[in-house]
What does this fold into?
Amino acid sequence: MENSNKKGRKWLWLTIAIAAVVALVVWCVVSAVNGAGITDVFGIDLSKPEKFKNGVVLFTLMFLMLAFGYLLGSISIKGVALGTAGVFLVAILLGWLSTLNFQNVPVLKYFHMSSTEETVVKYLKGPIQNIGLISFVGAVGFIAGPNFFKNLAKNFKTYILLGVIIILTGTLVAVICTLLTDYGSEYWAGILSGALTSTPGFSAAKDAATENLARITLGHAVAYPFGVVGVVLFVQLLPKFLKSDMGKERELLKIGEVEEKRDYSKYFKCEDFGFMPFALAVILGLLLGSITIPLTASGYDGACFSLGTTGGVLIMCLIFGHFGHFGKLSLEVNEKTLKVLREFGLALFLLGAGFEGGVALVQEVKEAGGIGIVVWGFVGGAVMTVAPMVVGFVLGKYVLKLPLLNNLGSITGGMTSTPALGTLISTAKTDDVASAYASTYPIALILIVLASQLMIRLM
It folds into this structure.
């Protein structure tokens, strides 16, 4: 009897919903027949296209990328799925589609992007992507914080060595490509930063170059898509190829680490979600990341290093997560809050990077004047992505004797791959892998900045 009532209520609400949609459509049609335009029906003034673009177009594109990206990411082939990285591929596709000629198509013409200088592209690449990045790395920092410093003290030398080997391997491939082709060190420095998905490396290459800046941008745009997807697939496929017992691997990951039981009830909490301590950690992290250190005798006019948004926020959130309180003030962030911030932040980061990449790739290829440079750049970038991971894994497994998840976590950090960390957490079904990522990431970040600049200055 109860099931019958549930089914009855279900069909009642479904009927009401269908009736409401039909009524809405009929009202729109009747309004149009009576002479009402789209401005009247939807309250959208298309006579002000820039206002329409900056509002409706921006958020429509955002949620289209999220919806269809997760739909693509849910497709599993023999247990392997793109997951959140599906958002990145859909974003690249929409970025490319937006460059097509829709100027004469009603409504769609407002979705046309002529270059990366469009306001919508700047918003997606700028504030939206950065909010996503801050949310993701901040959540990872808080999650990994309780065990991070114990894990770092135990494996400090190992993580440094892996970070060095991974970056050196990628740089060696880039140097070989530079010597074997006539595309120039600027192009291959851009390819290297894209293959390792390193925005700081990309910026360092542009700072070091005095010419061929467009080649750096093209190289980064060509290599970046495989740089994201390649590492995501690597951390999923390798455990399956090795037929690893993930339950056993999770136990090995926790050897020597004792989960600390904290009584947060004796500390003052502003609210249950933990947004206050999260915001405080982000503010201090941004300040830390903005500190700039000269690396040469030229001082601030020469090569400089800073942790940037990613490194500064990550380290500060690790510290907050480690201590858990400041005096009587609780620094705890609700676990559910962290998981939502981590997932949604990663999705925002990927859609911003992907859409801008799709628009930039078309723009840069047109300026380069041919597809050959793109093909060779893609092949070279793929090698720069795969070779460091393979070398790093072999070194970690057979020389350093690292458990699989420690090894893969270090590889995602050495590759400076934020999306791959999200995938590895899903694959391993534990957030503890973030400690290995966070331990290797800083050394890799420093080295990729130096490698990008030295390639251009010395070759």
Remarks:
- The radius of gyration is 24 Å.
- Residues 145 and 318 are 4 Å apart (CA to CA).
- Confidence is low (pLDDT under 50) at residues 255-259.
- The longest helix spans residues 119-180.
